[in-house]
User: Fold this.
Amino acid sequence: MSSLRLHSIDLLATMTGAEIGDGALLVRDGWIEKIGTTSEITDAADESVDLSGHVVLPGLVNTHQHLWQSLARAVPAAQDAALVDWLMALFPLWEKLTPDGVRTAGRLGAAGLALSGCTTVADHHYVWPNGIRMDDLVDGVAPVGVRAHLTRGGMSVGASQGGLAADVLTEREDAIVDATERAVSAFHDPEAGAMMRIAAGPPSVLSTSAELMRELGALAREHGIGLHTHLAETAGESERCVAAVGAPALPYLESLGWSGEHVWFAHAVHLAPDEIRSLAGSGTGVAHCPTSNMRLGSGIAPLGEFLREGVRVGLGVDGAASNDSTDMFAEVRQAMLLARVMAGMKGMGGIRHGSAGHRLLTARQMLRLATAGGAEVLSRDDIGTLAPGKAADIVAVDLDRLRFAGQHDPLAALVLCGTAHVDQSWVHGRRVVEDGRLRTVDVDELTAEHRARSAELTA
Ligand SMILES: [Zn+2]
Assistant:
């Protein structure tokens, strides 16, 4: 039994609607037992932490990432390329990826996310050359101490069959299914409080056959795991899908069993209104990745329409080859700003410039997407909010910083002023960030190792 009391918190935002001044939390064995004000929660605890001057909120949930891509940041040939050319520029580097590279990139990517307030990351891994296995990614991520949902993806349609990737990056379809089942039996924890879960999903509808997509859909239901892929990221991708299979990607995937609360799609930029309603109706989730969409010139996902129609939405940082930061709080800010750009462009929300009374999407709405929203997208009811019975995934930001000076609303300031990193974080009650530094891994050593692994991709 271990207990932790956090107290004297300037503002405790539970993301259930409550914002508590002079707040306090009692955590026992990784679970929140009590929440209230400092004067209400006076229990003795093994460890007591004074968080005066801090805002506290649930740890952020990143619903879409490719951790290995931290080895390929700011690659010249991919810097100014849109999606297809970007992929073609990067595939030759990824062909050289090794088990050590995946391990190191997984650890460094998760470390960067943890420093930016992320306590749960959903990683989408779909390249397995040179003997890479899911074990390598697990070995990389686990020591950082964040929760991980690892998608075992895979491509079966290579260049020789009209696909984009070289054949060396593809696998046989039965091998993809076998590796997914093996990852589930080795690493998937279905219990509440799970630190590791496995999901299934190729990178896109055109990278595998319809038979494999159907088989993975059935496999996900059989094992009770998540199902994930990129969807309608660019207009060109949507056109290629119609040409190849005779239907837009979403109805095609739905016909193969890809819908429901265990399914979540990254991007969903180019969807028709009836497709958005279909997502809402089936409870299928979206990982909204605004920075990546801007970086690759993919378009603007209709976030306001998702929210109006009741689609489950979380935020995704996406891989560091298309972001190129690995910064979860930055994504919250980008999501808010991009939604406001779209409001101005389309008159969304009734905006008519020169008239009064518009409401734009708020900082609080974006923080909700990044916490409770992400938890819903990953089908988790044990994280994403702070309440008795929830896992103690908690982040704290010190307001006594130059960037926050003059703020009049501490919670909104985290988004409006921008939060470079969190000062403290706990995952399941275990300290991950302390005074702005990672407590779980040696960042200097990791960065040096990562530099060497990154150089291997262009050697
Ligand atoms: Zn992605």
Summary: The chain has a mean pLDDT of 95. The radius of gyration is 21 Å. Residues 328-346 form the longest helix (19 residues).
